[in-house]
Amino acid sequence: MSSASEGLLRDQLGRALRDLRISVTDRCNFRCVYCMPKAVFGQHFRFLPREELLSFEEIERVARLFAELGVRKIRLTGGEPLMRRELERLVAKLAAIPGIEDLALTTNGALLTPDRARALREAGLRRVTVSLDALDDETFQRMNDVGFPVSRVLDAIEAAARAGLRPVKINMVVKRGWNDQAILPMAQHFRGSGHVLRFIEYMDVGTANGWRLDEVVPADEILDRINRHWPLEPVPPAHPGEVATRYRYRDGAGEIGIIASVTHPFCRGCTRARLSPEGQLFTCLFAARGTDLRQLLRSGADDATLMAAIRNTWQGRADRYSELRRLDTPSLVGTRPKVEMFRIGG
Ligand code: SF4
Question: What is the reported pTM?
Answer without folding.
Answer: 0.95
